[in-house]
Specification:
mainly alpha; 74 helices
Length: 1725
């Protein structure tokens, strides 16, 4: 302990001895100093002797060793006039402070209320006496002050610290030594850093301490709630005290050793403030305000006297020691408001905390003191904060000091002071911490002082001042934008934009503004915040939009009258482009999470946050978050819940949809204002329709008065109109003004500042009249005006006075006397007071009545101004900015810290046009590589943004712009390429590579350029030879789809060579590789992007291939390449891709150029082989898609070579990939089907050979895979059967027969696989074999029968019915129904009119064959078919009978006969009824009744042929009935037997001949009567026709039935014979024969009677068989029936003897009479 004190004493002793040893102390004027030093030395020695080594305080680092006595010597030394003595004293003081010997916390005995350290600093500062101060002394002053301010051993605050800073400041300004200036400046910077760093550190310490105490208090509260029954208050008090003490100790232990003393002193000061025992630092808010007043601008206390040197120094330095009362009042008001707000907040917090805490009083005293400190109504949370505030405010005021008039002097103190203050302010802002950035006191200081200072310095003509101002603003924008919304708007709109637009600003101004904007535009957070907070705020200016527009204008606008050199203009253009590019880069960076780079694997598995969650999106995001979340200061920080609610509120405010809605409203409002400024009524109506303003007059008036963007002239015209609405609006407008207590001229100024008076006198009259009325209403106690008329006239006169005094056109100005005379007698025939009028005159003379400054419109643009005009305009800008800045200093406006990425979309939509103009003009007009690179980078970024946010118009426009500047457009022609064109090409390629996922329609433009690039590369490499050139020239008349070729080859040889050389760069390795990367990189495009890419690549390829002059296959090759590259994509993507490529190959494969088509087919083959190698699972159909183009090409291409190529490709696939082919079989058979109809035998044979291989070999191996396409295979065989080569046709039919065997052998496969048809999900499995197997075979055979030649169709018909007969037993009933529909199609072919050729041949062969085969099949499967198909078969037979072909009709009749004879025994009653009805129908169909009425006409021959055919068919039907009923040969034999009986009288008449297969017995009575009726109808018609000799003659003459007259004798006889046979047979078999007897008697009687009437021998001879039949059947009757019949027929039979009869008849009649005699005899007996 003793050693420490001795050491310090020795240090003081040596310092005093050094002073005493100085030779200057020997002088008499230093006697007192010498005495003081000796006295100090003696006292030190005495003190050391008296005090022992046991002094506990001696080892304290804070011990004050009788500082009062010792400091006196040093104080006197500092006041010495000897520079050496002063230097020694200052050096000693510096070391004493540095080593902690001199702390100065003790009160100063000479100045009550002060501490010793204050006196020490004052003494040190007084050592500087201006310019004449020794340079070494200046340096020592700087050192000791720096030590005092930065030392942790002593504290200086308030005025003392300001005095120290001021002294260093003055040394910098006054010193002539560059070293001292530099040192002073560095010292100031270090002082300020320490001051503000201590404030931040103290806030951190308090915050940590507060948090720990809060946590401990919460834990104690919880423990007390649990254990309150077992713990007394004393224990709890001790616990809290111990915990608090431990916490404080721990906090100090954790602090650095150098800071512990300071922390302790800070804590003690805080305790003193709470207990009321502190010094002036614990003063009340009012005292604090006074203290602030004392220290403004580094000022000393007011009561302190100043020396003459100090006064002279301050006059030289330009540093004021006091401030105006207005400023003091402002500060007082601000602080009082802050204090009151803090009081309210702290009171509320205290109430909440008191409610939450228990009544326990055991909290530690330290916690209570900190709590009291937290909630006390102090203006500053700590004295360190106050120090920082005072210093900051003083520097702000120093920066506001005006400079002297005249040209700026860089060496003047004012000039240097302003620069230094701005530099120090910039340093403070750069190193500012959370407290400074968020404390309300500092924020208000920035608003009221710093921003106002910047508004003035922001247009300074001193470049360094201007640059510093911009740098400070930049820092404010980065760190304080949340609090300075209105100030930022003023700075941007009134300074930045004005300087860039006006011609008054210099190049330096513009350049530095652009540099600052460049830095601003590099920060994405700031850029987006500007847009959201200003452009999307209805009440704010469109800063972002205007900024972009101005930058765009600067980037391409030549300023011939701006006095800028060409280099300066280029520099500005480059910088403005750089700013625009930075803005776009920020947009890209802000939305980067929405972008997916197709070539970056880092995006895989990355989740995108569409809601724009808070993240690090910009360089300043960290700053913004710290500002939003509050500062780290403990005293005024919000609670965590308040932070959370604030954050939620701000997140809700940052809603892109809401903000965009506000932006739309703002756009509507701006549109309405624009309309209003053109036509007021139209504008008002528009805004009312949009709901922006109300419909009442008061709403309109409010809008006119509040909206400052309205044209004042239009406002005046609108409210001056005489219409009712306008007048009402005007009344409301004026009534909203309050003139109470105002003089007349100020009231008139207020009235006229919102609009410009209209030019029409009536409008002015209405306005002045209303103004006068309103003024009088507001001032009813005014005694000057007798009435409102006086005010009205006076207002008019003031308007006239203003025009007279301030109009340049009026040469002779009105005098005051003239003005008084002009207003004589206006006050109710009296005069206004002369003094009143003179005062009005003077007011108007000195200040014109003008519009409000915000209503005036700035004249921007290029104007020729003098230097004075330029200066005046810049001053006006500064004054306006300052006024606006002061006006908004108290305005509170919310600022949104944006986080959402969706804001970029409306930002880009707002600015893309201006940027496009800038970039396009830059590329077009400039050849500088720097500008070109900027423009291209900007376009690239713009395309990226348009891609990310799916903006097709913007994206396509920018891509088209790049395409245009690349000179690769098809209609651009060939021009010499420059470096910028090559770079544009590279940029376009880069866009395609990096943004391929988003390009969509823009791929078209890019791929067109790539196609053109390939052509240019060919030209550049001199691939085109002279022959090609000449060919192009000769073909110039041909319309060229690609003008680039014509324009190229039409050039002269030398020009073409020059262009080729310039295009060499397009063939560089980098360009070629970049282009290839686009295609190789297509594998990483997403599903939608690859589809777009393929679609437009196909389109461009088609354009290449359809070029009539020179088609190219570049894109075709690339399509094949990318198909190989993307072979690994999933099927669903390939399906979409191939939907495009399929159509593409369809068109390309059908190209007229065989080389192109050949390449396309070969490429298609290769791709197909690759796809086939991958195989296909059942149920998929992708193979069908990629093989379908082969079918299309085969069908539509006319070249045999290409078709042969297609067939060979398919055949190769079959031979090599049969195992992998699944759904592709359908297309394969489709190609073979098309090939089968070809006229080239080689193609047909090649295709048939492959098909035969499939049927014979592959079917056995992979039938399960082909079963889905079995129908297509049969279809192919059908076409081969119908080909022009018979051998192939016959072999194809054989293969069809073989396929039928496959179906029969493997029915289970067909039953299990329903194929691809899902239209019948409930179809039974048993039907599958029919639908997929039998039906296609039989149907295709029916087509073969219908289409082919006779031998082929006959073979097909045979095979078809062989299959039916062979396998029909497995057919189901419904299958037979379908099958017979197929069969009937054979006959239906002739129903089609265009197929009526070769009808006879068709009927004679195919139909006959088919008809009989049908009957055979029907007979074979009668039991199965008859229930459902009998009607159809009969119907088909009727159709055949109905045909006009005799052979077919006869065949139909014969088939009917055969069908009945074959199956009659199986017929049911219903079947026989149908059969009989059918026969009856046939009779009706073949009836020739028209013969009786026929007359010659136009269609004689055809009708006669038809009637003749009907007669033949009637005869056939008669014979058909006869053969059905009695069997075919029975009738003939019976007639022969009748002749034999007649010729042999001795021969006994035997029983009737009956065949066992005859159907007579199967028919019932009704059926037989039906037959009889039909026969009798035919018989009666024949008799009538034979008897009409006249009609027969007509027909004979017309050529009916040969050379003789036509007759129907045969029909007459056969029908009667058949009838008689039926009736006689019925008489024998039926038990009840009355009906038969009656009919038989009638028929016989009529027959005999008719015979008797016959006149010709021939006719009678024809009746001989009938008579023989009649007599023979009569003779066979039993006795009783015989007698009955002879009674009725005896006489007619006797009459026969009257005629010349045949011998047979006569002999038979003889037997009849003999039998009659015998029977008569027997009956008589």
């Amino acid at each position: 302990m003793q050693e420490t004190k001795v050491t310090r004493s020795m240090f003081l002793i040596r310092a005093l001895e050094r002073i005493l040893s100085d030779k200057e102390l020997k002088k008499s004027q230093n006697a007192q100093l010498r005495k003081a030093c000796k006295t100090a030395l003696d006292e030190i020695q005495d003190d050391l002797q008296k005090q022992g080594g046991h002094d506990e305080q001696a080892n304290s680092p804070h011990t004050i060793i009788e500082a009062d006595k010792y400091f006196l010597a040093f104080e006197m030394a500092c006041k010495s006039k000897s520079a050496g003595v002063v230097g020694i004293a200052l050096d000693c003081l510096q070391k004493m402070i540095a080593y902690g010997i001199l702390v100065g916390n003790a009160p100063d005995s000479t100045l009550p209320g002060k501490r010793l350290i204050d006196r020490v600093i004052d003494t040190i500062c007084n050592c500087f006496m201006g310019v004449q101060t020794d340079e070494n002394v200046q340096l020592q002053i700087i050192k000791v002050l720096l030590t005092a301010v930065t030392s942790n051993n002593c504290e200086i605050h308030d005025g003392t610290i300001l005095q120290a800073v001021r002294t260093c400041y003055n040394i910098y300004l006054a010193s002539r030594s560059v070293v001292n200036q530099t040192t002073a400046k560095a010292t100031l910077s270090q002082m300020l850093n320490v001051i503000f760093a201590r404030m931040e550190a103290q806030a951190n310490i308090d915050s940590e301490l507060y948090e720990k105490i809060e946590q401990e208090n919460e834990s104690i509260t919880e423990d007390s709630m649990v254990n309150h029954n077992g713990m007394d208050e004393g224990n709890m008090d001790r616990t809290n005290e111990n915990s608090t003490d431990n916490l404080s100790t721990q906090n100090q232990d954790e602090a650095p050793e150098s800071d512990r003393h300071q922390s302790k002193m800070i804590a003690e000061t805080s305790l003193n403030q709470e207990s009321g025992k502190g010094d002036e630092n614990s003063s009340s808010p009012e005292q604090s305000i006074e203290k602030n007043k004392e220290n403004n601008e580094f000022a000393p206390e007011k009561g302190e006297t100043e020396s003459e040197n100090e006064q002279e120094q301050k006059q030289v330095n330009g540093i004021s020691d006091s401030e105006s009362s207005d400023t003091e009042t402002m500060i007082r008001d601000i602080i009082e408001d802050m204090v009151s707000q803090v009081v309210i907040n702290t009171s509320e917090n205290q109430v909440e905390r008191k409610e939450s805490m228990t009544s326990d009083t055991s909290a530690s005293s330290r916690y209570q003191q900190l709590e009291q400190q937290l909630y006390n109504s102090q203006s500053f949370s700590h004295v360190l904060q106050k120090d920082a505030f005072l210093v900051f405010r003083s520097l702000c005021k120093l920066s506001m000091k005006p400079l002297s008039e005249g040209p700026p002097d860089p060496k003047s103190h004012e000039h240097r002071s302003k620069i230094l203050s701005l530099q120090l302010l910039l340093a403070i802002l750069e190193s500012s911490g959370p407290v400074f950035r968020s404390n309300e006191m500092f924020i208000n200081a920035i608003k009221q002082y710093l921003c106002v200072a910047l508004s003035k310095n922001g247009v300074s003509n001193i470049p360094e001042v201007f640059e510093l101002s911009l740098a400070i603003f930049l820092k404010l924008l980065e760190n304080f934008k949340t609090y300075l919304k209105m100030q930022i708007q003023v700075f941007f709109k009134e300074i930045f934009l004005n300087i860039l637009e006006t011609n008054s600003s210099s190049f330096d101004h513009k350049w530095m503004v652009l540099q600052t904007l460049g830095k601003i535009c590099e920060d994405a957070q700031i850029v987006v915040d500007i847009y959201v907070n200003y452009d999307c705020d209805i009440n704010a200016a469109n800063i972002f939009e205007e900024l972009v527009n101005i930058l765009s204008k600067i980037s391409h606008q030549n300023l011939p009258e701006s006095n800028l050199s060409s280099h300066q203009e280029n520099t500005m253009q480059s910088k403005s482009l750089e700013c625009l590019v930075s803005i776009l880069t920020c947009m890209v960076d802000w939305s980067k999470d929405l972008y997916v780079n197709p070539h970056s694997m880092s995006n895989l598995g990355k989740e995108h946050n569409p809601d724009g969650a808070i993240s690090n999106l910009s360089l300043s995001a960290g700053h913004s978050s710290s500002n939003v979340n509050g500062s780290s200061q403990s005293i005024h920080s919000d609670s965590s819940s308040e932070h959370a609610s604030l954050e939620i509120k701000k997140l809700n405010a940052d809603n892109p949809e809401t903000i965009e809605g506000i932006k739309q409203q703002k756009s509507i409002l701006e549109r309405g204002i624009q309309l209003f400024n053109l036509k007021p009524k139209k504008g008002v109506t528009f805004l009312q329709d949009q709901g922006m303003i109300g419909t009442t007059a008061s709403d309109i008036a409010e809008f006119l008065s509040s909206e400052e963007r309205l044209d004042p002239g239009q406002v005046g015209d609108f409210i001056g109109e005489n219409e009712a609405l306008n007048k009402e609006v005007m009344y409301e407008y004026v009534d909203n003004l309050n003139f109470s207590g105002m003089d007349f001229v100020p009231s008139l100024r207020m009235f006229l500042e919102g609009f410009r008076l209209p030019g029409e006198a009536q409008k002015i009259d209405r306005l002045m009249e209303k103004f006068a009325s309103r003024f009088c209403d507001c001032n009813p106690k005014d005694t000057v005006f007798a009435s409102a008329d006086t005010a009205y006239v006076l207002a008019y006169s003031i308007i006239m006075l203003t025009t007279d005094l301030h109009s340049a056109q009026v040469k002779r100005k009105i005098s005051v006397e003239d003005y008084i005379r002009m207003n004589k007698g206006i006050n109710d025939s009296k005069d206004l007071p002369r003094e009143y009028l003179e005062d009005i005159y003077e007011q108007i003379k000195h200040q014109e009545i003008t519009l409000k400054s915000t209503r005036s419109q700035n004249v921007k643009g290029i104007r020729v101004l003098s230097a004075a005009q330029k200066k005046q305009e810049m001053d006006n800008i500064a004054d306006t900015a300052k006024a606006l800045m002061e006006a908004v200093s108290h305005v509170q406006s919310s600022f949104i810290n944006t986080t959402h990425q969706d804001h970029v979309r409306p930002m880009f939509q707002l600015s893309w046009r201006s940027m496009l103009v800038a970039f396009s003009m830059g590329l077009q007009d400039s050849d500088e590589s720097g500008i070109d690179q900027l423009c291209l980078e900007g376009m690239r970024c713009a395309i990226r943004i348009a891609c990310i946010f799916q903006l097709p118009l913007e994206r396509d426009t920018y891509v088209q712009a790049l395409s245009r500047f690349s000179l690769l457009q098809a209609n651009a022609g060939i021009r010499e390429m420059k470096a910028k064109n090559i770079e544009t090409i590279k940029t376009l390629i880069n866009v395609a590579y990096t943004d391929g996922n988003y390009l969509q329609e823009s791929w078209h433009e890019i791929l067109q350029c790539i196609s053109q690039l390939e052509l240019l590369q060919l030209i550049g490499s001199k691939v085109r030879d002279q022959n090609a050139t000449m060919k192009a020239v000769r073909s110039a008349s041909v319309a060229d789809a690609n003008p680039i070729l014509t324009k190229t080859f039409g050039l002269e040889h030398k020009k073409l060579a020059s262009i080729q050389e310039s295009m060499g760069e397009t063939s560089s390795q980098s360009v070629v590789v970049a282009v290839d990367r686009i295609f190789t990189g297509s594998t990483r495009l997403d599903g939608d992007a690859i589809v777009d890419f393929v679609r437009w690549l196909s389109k461009v390829s088609l354009d290449e291939l359809t070029n009539q002059l020179h088609p190219r296959m570049f894109c075709l090759q690339k399509i094949v390449e990318i198909s190989y590259y993307n072979m690994g994509r999933i099927r669903i993507q390939w399906s979409r891709i191939w939907a495009i490529l399929g159509d593409y190959f369809n068109e390309v494969g059908c190209s007229d150029e065989e080389s192109i088509a050949f390449f396309a087919v070969d490429s298609l083959r290769q791709l197909s082989m690759k796809f086939l190698e991958k195989g296909e699972l059942p149920g998929f159909s992708f193979q069908k898609d990629f093989l379908r183009p082969f079918e299309h090409i085969m069908k539509h291409h006319n070249s045999p070579n290409i078709q042969d190529m297609v067939v060979r490709c398919i055949a190769q696939m079959v031979s090599s990939q049969a195992l992998n082919i699944k759904s592709g079989w359908k297309n394969i058979f489709g190609v073979f089907t098309l090939a089968a109809s070809h006229h080239d035998e080689n193609i047909v044979e090649l295709a048939f050979h492959a098909t035969s291989t499939i049927i014979t070999d592959i079917f056995n191996l992979y039938f399960l895979s082909i079963i889905y396409c079995f129908q297509d295979a049969i279809g192919a065989l059908r076409e081969f059967s119908c080909c022009a080569f018979p051998d192939t046709s016959m072999e194809a039919i054989r293969l069809i027969r073989q396929c039928a065997d496959y179906v029969a052998q493997r029915p289970d496969l067909f039953e299990r696989h329903s194929g691809e048809d899902t239209s019948k999900p409930d179809m039974p499995n048993r039907d599958n074999i029919w639908v997929r197997g039998w039906f296609p075979i039989l149907f295709e055979l029916s087509i073969i029968i219908s289409r082919c030649k006779l031998d082929v169709r006959t073979r097909g018909l045979t095979v078809m019915f062989e299959i039916m007969k062979t396998h029909g037993d497995s057919f189901h009933t419904d299958w037979w129904n379908d099958l017979f529909q197929i069969i009937f199609r054979i006959f239906d072919q002739m129903k089609v009119p265009e197929l009526q050729l070769e009808k006879s041949d068709w009927f004679a062969t195919t139909c006959n064959h088919a008809l009989f085969a049908v009957c055979d099949v029907f007979t074979q499967y009668y039991e199965t078919l008859s229930p459902t198909l009998l009607h159809d078969v009969y119907g088909q037979l009727l159709w055949c009978v109905e045909k006009e072909n005799e052979q077919l009709a006869r065949s139909g009749v014969n088939c009917l006969e055969n069908l009945v004879l074959s199956n009659g025994t199986k017929f049911t009653k219903e079947t026989w009824k149908v059969t009989c009805d059918t026969i009856q129908t046939v009779f009706k169909m073949v009836s020739a009744d028209k013969l009786m009425t026929w007359k010659p006409g136009n269609d004689d021959i055809a009708e006669l042929q038809t009637l003749q055919l009907r007669c033949i068919l009637t005869a056939e039907m008669i014979e058909c009935i006869d053969r059905i009923l009695f069997y075919p040969t029975t009738t003939k034999k019976d007639d022969e037997y009748n002749v034999t009986v007649a010729q042999t009288p001795s021969m006994a008449i035997a029983q009737e001949l009956r065949h066992k297969d005859a159907m007579f017995s199967q028919l019932n009575e009704n059926h037989l009567f039906t037959m009889v009726r039909c026969l009798l109808v035919a018989h009666d018609f024949a008799k009538r026709f034979n008897g009409d000799n006249e009609q027969r003659t007509i027909l004979w003459k017309a050529g009916f039935k040969g050379k003789s007259k036509p007759n129907l004798i045969r029909q007459e006889c056969t029908s009667l014979s058949c009838t008689l046979r039926i009736l006689f047979r019925m008489k024998d078999q039926l038990e009840t024969a009355e009906r038969v007897d009656a009919l038989l008697y009638s028929v016989c009687l009529n027959a005999l009677s008719y015979f008797s009437s016959l006149t010709t021998e021939t006719h009678r001879d024809a009746w001989t068989p009938v008579l023989l039949l009649l007599i023979t059947r009569t003779l066979r009757l039993e006795e009783k029936p015989f007698l009955t019949l002879t009674k009725k027929l005896h006489t007619p039979l006797c009459d026969l003897l009257l005629f010349e009869l045949k011998p047979e008849v006569r002999l038979l009649l003889r037997r009849y009479f003999l039998q009659c005699n015998a029977v008569s005899t027997t009956s008589n007996s």
